[in-house]
From TrEMBL:
Annotated TM spans: 72-91, 97-115, 428-451, 463-493, 505-526
Principal location class: membrane
Species assigned in the record: Salinispora tropica (strain ATCC BAA-916 / DSM 44818 / JCM 13857 / NBRC 105044 / CNB-440)
Compartments, as annotated in UniProt: Cell membrane
Keyword tags: Cell membrane, Membrane, Transmembrane, Transmembrane helix
Protein family according to the UniProt entry: Belongs to the YccS/YhfK family.
Pfam families noted in UniProt: FUSC_2
Name of the protein described by the UniProt record: Integral membrane bound transporter domain-containing protein
Region (Disordered), start-end ranges: 286-307
GO cellular component: plasma membrane
């Protein structure tokens, strides 16, 4: 038996904070108000039609990020584009071929523009609907003002309702999750400082804080957030937030290595530096969660200082000092990225390397143009999906015009609803959608037979609207299509004289649209665009492998070129763009055998480490002075290049669980350096050998995180994370 408590618990599980219910209530109120007012108050069928579909499009087919006020401003800012699309569709509706050509252009342009970020991709469905609705007969350019007035009224009232009627709680943003993770990491680094200072009981507390920090950083993955709240835009702020996330993961990894391997070593100077790192991370976390503004001036925790007592340090202390210095540079990187995200240009302390924070030197339009240019290639998932959608919509518009379908708009609406990135997904959706449409059409036909009068549909419009917008999405695609079909029958029964055959027209139109979608999905990149991220990640690891070897051999006087490092930076930018698009589109994904964020972290670590080691260094400075440890580093770099290349070769095909982990045990370079110092070496540059050794060891650990363990890839389904289809 159903009970009120059981229904409420079920609703809370499927709709936390009742966000969907709030939106459905807002949209139902606005839709009924504008429809009844325009249809029966002003007696304007065009105005009523566009007001109703303006409400549905702006509320159901848009997924906008931000707080209610931000979403309202975005809707109002998009109004001019909606007017242009309605005007274009109205003018082109006179000729089927002109409307079809317009559909091809608009369909592709709107879809591919979504690569710029969640706001544009969130408005894409509404933009498509406005052109589609206007491009169908009757050809009435004289009624264009009524159409524009209806849409303007609807958008305006939806924007007001977003702010004033049952606004939901503010969504959790990526910056807030990242800020919480940064605070946890700061607490953990502070505890690690106590460990290195030799305080009793500090190690146990550090392990507790380590577990909390690891969990917080895991929760800060973009895949754990709603697609609308992920930092995926091409703007400077989102670039900086993604960099801060990568830097935080590197900080946590360095701290974890210290706790696991050097907890027994006492080094008060390194402990003091860790405390400064913890304070810097704490300030960064406060800035991200919004409790404290970022400082306009960069205050680095370290200027790459050498430990004061390095000549008398033990081998373990040398290793700890170098590791803490590396952690401090990561913390500085996080602090700089957070300041940039907060709006500061950070000119006081320019980052090491010409490619670090490269987006600071670009204007906002150039950043968006670069993102768009990355995707204007047939290899891009966005290009493939945009072309597939545009061709399907154009074909549907042509067929609807040739067959003179009375409600051809429904054909294209079915394609917008059902088309997926792969043929297999589209076919699966096809079956569910047809089932739901059949159920809704049957209920609608029965309703039209029993209650042919228009008054019935005037009365039940609010109920069908509430069910379609609030209940259908909670019950799945079958019920969503069934209730949407019932809503459309209820609406069109009031717009034009009709009978029970309207339900059959709806079913036929959805069948035609779904068939066109399946055919388009089968003929145009049927495996989908999911292989794009695999391709980019593989390329990043492959060129990164050469950059590792190139960096070390340059220091060993075996080559002076830095082409591979530059190529790795370019590959990193391409992989980042694909990663962002992947998270813009992934909603109900499957687990993957590749940790995409770990792959980006590995590429980032290669570029930043190589730039830091090569800046100011003459080729061969290490080999000329200390040939024995340098030769060992060269051999390790060559071996690591092979390991990276091996993983890169497996990424496109998958099955990364077959790749053996990279050993990260000590190579003895630190001990060699210690013996050199004990033999009387006074040049502090000898410590660069340890820095190179730790960089290579860190790259090995980065690589080991790229393949997802089999248990996780099979049993773990992170909200919003996915494996690219077709891969």
């Amino acid at each position: 038996m159903w009970s009120w408590r059981g229904v409420r618990n079920w609703l809370q599980q499927r709709d936390p904070d009742y966000c969907l219910a709030r939106r459905a209530a807002r949209l139902t109120l606005v839709a009924c108000l504008v429809f009844y007012g325009c249809r029966y108050g002003l007696d304007s069928t065009p105005m009523a039609t566009y007001a109703l579909f303006g409400t549905i499009a702006s509320g159901v087919f848009t997924q906008l990020p931000g707080r209610p006020a931000q979403r309202a401003r975005t809707l109002l800012a998009a109004l001019p584009i909606m007017w242009i699309l309605i005007a274009a569709g109205t003018m082109l509706a006179a000729n089927t071929w002109a409307a079809t050509a317009g559909m091809l252009v608009v369909g592709f342009a709107v879809a591919v523009a979504g690569v710029s970020g969640p706001r544009i991709i969130g408005l894409g469905g509404a933009f498509q609907i406005f052109y589609i609705l206007a491009s169908f007969p009757p050809y009435q350019p004289d009624r264009l003002p009524e159409r524009l007035a209806g849409v303007t009224l609807a958008i305006g009232l939806v924007a007001v309702a977003e702010v004033t009627l049952w606004p939901g709680p503010a969504p959790v943003t990526f910056a807030q999750r990242l800020g919480a993770a940064t605070r946890r990491t700061a607490s953990y680094v502070a505890a690690l400082a106590d460990v290195l200072a030799g305080q009793p009981g500090a190690e146990e507390e550090a392990w507790r804080r380590h577990a909390r920090a690891v969990n917080a950083v895991e929760q800060a993955r973009m895949s754990r957030l709603s697609p609308t709240e992920r930092a995926t835009s091409a703007g400077r702020r989102d670039h900086a937030l993604r960099d801060a996330s990568i830097g935080l993961r590197q900080t946590l990894r360095s701290a974890g290595w210290l706790l696991r391997n050097e907890a027994a070593t006492t080094d008060r100077e390194s402990a003091d530096l860790l405390r400064r790192c913890a304070a810097s991370l704490r300030r960064s976390g406060d800035t991200l969660v919004g409790t404290e503004p970022a400082s306009p001036r960069a205050v680095p925790t370290t200027e790459h200082r050498r430990p004061e007592a390095w000549r008398s340090a033990t081998a373990a202390q040398l290793r700890v000092a170098a590791s803490v210095g590396m952690l401090a540079r990561h913390a500085d990187f996080v602090a700089t990225a957070v300041r940039i995200a907060d709006g500061h240009a950070d000119p006081t302390h320019p980052p090491a390397g010409p490619d670090t924070f490269w987006y600071l030197r670009r204007s906002l339009p150039s950043l968006y143009w670069q993102r768009l240019r990355f995707h204007l290639t047939p290899r891009s998932v966005s290009f493939q999906q945009a072309l597939r959608l545009a061709v399907a919509l154009a074909a549907a518009r042509l067929i609807a015009g040739i067959l003179d379908l009375k409600h051809g708009f429904w054909v294209l609406l079915a394609i917008l609803t059902l088309l997926r990135t792969s043929a297999a997904d589209t076919r699966a959706t096809f079956r569910l959608a047809l089932t739901g449409t059949l159920v809704g059409a049957s209920a609608g036909a029965l309703l039209l037979l029993v209650f042919p009068g228009q008054e019935t549909y005037v009365a039940i419009l609010p109920l069908t609207m509430l069910l379609a917008l609030g209940v259908g999405p909670l019950l799945g695609l079958v019920w969503a299509q069934a209730l949407l079909t019932l809503l459309l029958i209820t609406v069109f029964a009031q717009l034009t004289p009709t009978d029970w055959q309207l339900a059959g027209v709806r079913l036929l139109d959805v069948l035609i649209g779904a068939t066109i979608g399946v055919v388009a999905g089968t003929l145009i990149w049927p495996r989908g665009g999911g292989g794009e991220l695999r391709h980019r990640a593989s390329a990043l690891l492959d060129v990164g492998a050469h950059a590792i070897e190139e960096t070390v051999t340059t220091l060993a006087e075996r080559g002076g070129r830095r082409h591979a490092v530059q190529a790795t930076h370019r590959a990193q930018a391409l992989a980042d763009a694909s990663f962002c698009q992947y998270h813009l589109e992934s909603r109900d994904p499957e687990p993957s055998d590749v940790d995409w964020e770990a792959a980006l972290v590995a590429g980032h670590r290669i570029v930043r480490g190589a730039e830091a080691l090569l800046i100011g260094d003459r080729p061969g400075t290490l080999a000329a002075s200390w040939p024995a440890p340098t030769a060992r580093l060269v051999r390790r770099a060559e071996w690591l290049r092979s390991a990276y290349a091996d993983v890169a070769s497996h990424v496109p095909q998958g099955h990364l669980q077959q790749v053996a982990p990279v050993p990260t045990a000590a190579t003895g370079v630190v001990e060699q350096v210690h013996r050199i110092i004990q033999a009387g070496e006074r040049r502090a540059d000898v410590l660069r050998l340890i820095e190179v050794d730790l960089w290579l060891a860190d790259l090995g650990r980065c690589l080991n995180r790229v393949p997802v363990p089999e248990r996780r890839s099979e049993g773990h389904r992170a909200p919003g994370s996915s494996k690219p289809s077709g891969s």
